[in-house]
Amino acid sequence: MKKSPVCFIAMAFGRDDTDLFYEQQILPVLKRNGVKPIIINRHQSNDDLNLQIFGQLEKADFCIADLAYTRPSVYFEAGYAQRLIPVIYTVRKDHLSKGQPDDLRVHFDLQMKPIIDWISPNDSTFARRLEKRIKATFLGEWVKIQKISLKYENDEKKFQELPGFERHNYVRYNTILALRKLGYKESNWSANRLFDHNNYIKSEIRNGFVNYAVGYKVDKRKLYVASVQSFLSPSKSELIRMEEVYTNIYFLPEPVLTLIREQKYKDIYINTIILSMNSLPASRIESILPDIVPIENSKRYYETVSWDSFAVFAEFHFLSGIKSLILLREQLKAVMSNL
C-alpha cells in the first residue's frame, strides 16, 4: 500500500513565471494534501529521457499538465499519461484567448478539456480551484482505494499467520456456509465415503474439519450435489481421482442412491468445488483433465456422462491462489452465482 499519492508534473520549467507559479501555487496544494510530486528534469537518472518519463508516469497516480508556452514535451507527457492515469490540465489564462501566436495558445484538440486557468504566479483563486479539482477527481477515490487495500493486506496477513490446517478449515467452512445459503441444508451434508470412511458429526463437517465434504438439495425432480475439498495445491493423482468420482454418483449416501434407482430424480447436477491455496493455472488443469470442457475461459469446466437412464451433469469449479478470506469470498460469490 502506498503511503502517499504521487503526482507527475508536466510543465514548461525554466521560465520565471512558470517556476514561480509551481512553487507558489501547485506545490503548496500538493503538500497540504500529502501528495508527492515528480518532476522529470529534477529526477536524477542515467536512463533515456523517454524511458524515464514512461517509468515515472507508470508509478504516478495522477498528472498535472500545465500547457503554458505550448511545450511539445508537455503535450507528449500529458498524452501518454491519459492512457494510464487522470490528468488535470492548467494554463495561463491568455493562452485561451483568440488570436494568440502558436507558442502562446492551447492547441485545438485540448481546448475542450476542463482546464483550470491562472492569471499570474500570485493568482488568488487558483490554489483553491486546483485543490477542489484534485479532491473531486482523484484524491477521494485514492483514499478509498487505499483503505480497501489496507483491509486486504491486513486480512491476508492474518490469514497467512494461521497454521495450515486452520486455513483449510476456514476455506471449507466459508464454502459450505455459502452453499447452505443456496439451500444445501446442514442435515444433508456428509463425508464422501469413497475418500473418507469415518463417521463425522454434522458440526465437524459444517465447521470445515472434514475434507471431501458432500451436500445435496432437491428441487422438484432435480438433484443438486455439491462437494468441497481443499489443498495446498492438488496433485495430478488427486485431480484425476476427483474427476473419476464426481462424474459418477456412487459417492452419494445410500438413501440418495436408492431414490435415484427408484427414478425419483430426473436430472442430476454435481458441482465440485476445488480450493487451492496456491495458484492453479488453467493449463495445468486442462493438461491433467483433457476430458473436461472449459466454460467461458473461466476456471469452470463441465463434463456430461450417462448412468443407466440418467445423464449426470458435472461441473468443476477451481478457486485457487487463496491468500485471504476476503479473496476467497469474492471467488465464492462468482461461483455461487453459477450454481
Architecture overview:
There is one protein chain. The chain has 2 domains: 6-159, Rossmann fold (3-Layer(aba) Sandwich); 164-336, no CATH class. The model is unreliable at 42-46 (pLDDT under 50). The chain starts with 5 loop residues before the first strand and ends with a helix. Helix 1 crosses helix 4 (126-160) and helix 5 packs parallel to helix 10. The chain has 339 residues and is an alpha/beta fold. It contains 10 helices and 12 strands. Helices cover 40% and strands 22% of the residues. The radius of gyration is 30 Å and the shape is elongated. A hairpin with a 5-residue loop joins strand 10 and strand 11 (300-307). The chain has a 7-stranded mixed β-sheet with strand order 6-7-8-9-12-11-10.
Strand order of the largest sheet: 6-7-8-9-12-11-10
- Our measurement of the CA-to-CA distance between the termini, rounded to an integer number of angstroms, reads 35 Å
Please state the CA-atom Rg, rounded to the nearest Å: 30 Å
SSE order in H/E notation?
EHEHEHEEHHEHEEHHEHEEEH
The total number of structural domains is 2
Class from secondary-structure proportions: alpha/beta
* H/I helix tally: 10
Q: Based on Cα principal axes, name the global outline.
A: elongated
Poorly predicted regions are 42-46
Q: Say how many strands there are.
A: 12
Percent of residues in beta strands? 15-25%
Average pLDDT over all residues:
89
The biggest sheet, with number of strands, parallel, antiparallel or mixed sense and barrel status, is: 7 strands, mixed
Helix content: 25-40%
